[in-house]
Amino acid sequence: MTPDRALKDSAISQAITKIAIALAGYRQLPVQKRLPLIDVVFMLPGSQERVQFTGLRIRGFDPAAQSLQFEAAVPDKMVASAHAERYVIAVMQDAIDAGAEFCRERQILFDSTEHLALSEALVAKPHYAVN
């Protein structure tokens, strides 16, 4: 959710887009095709509009689609942060952990290990020059 046009080119918006594109590149993996699905909506802070919670919360579960939705309240300091990409991945990992607990309580099979491994594959690795 982008409540402010000024946020469109922010570091956090760019990080969310970059991670979404990277995930799309892995769509052929079986873990990306198994149910239940976990969706995360990043709620960005605008100058006029802000969410009334902090952290991550469950938005809802659609049993027909087997989709668990989360909302993440993005803190102000993350909007222009150099660590925005790592933050997005950390939120995804928190959602995976929370989703695993949700599924376990309802006896729904969910492979959190594979989802966490996929999220780790998205972490930018440092590049070193060899002379």
Main attributes?
single chain; 131 residues; alpha+beta; 17% strand; globular
Poorly predicted parts: none
The percent of residues in helical segments reads 25-40%
**Terminus-to-terminus distance:** 45 Å
The largest beta-sheet arranges its strands as: 1-3-2
Describe the protein in words.
The protein is an alpha+beta fold. Helix content is 36%, strand content 17%. It has helices spanning 11-25, 84-105, 112-121; strands at 37-43, 55-62, 67-73. A hairpin with a 4-residue loop joins β2 and β3. The N and C termini lie far apart (45 Å).
Task: Give the topology, please.
Blueprint: H1 11-25, E1 37-43, E2 55-62, E3 67-73, H2 84-105, H3 112-121
Parallel strand pairs: 1-3
Antiparallel strand pairs: 2-3
Helix pairs in contact: 1-2, 2-3
How would you summarize this macromolecular structure in one to three sentences?
The chain is an alpha+beta fold and 131 residues long.
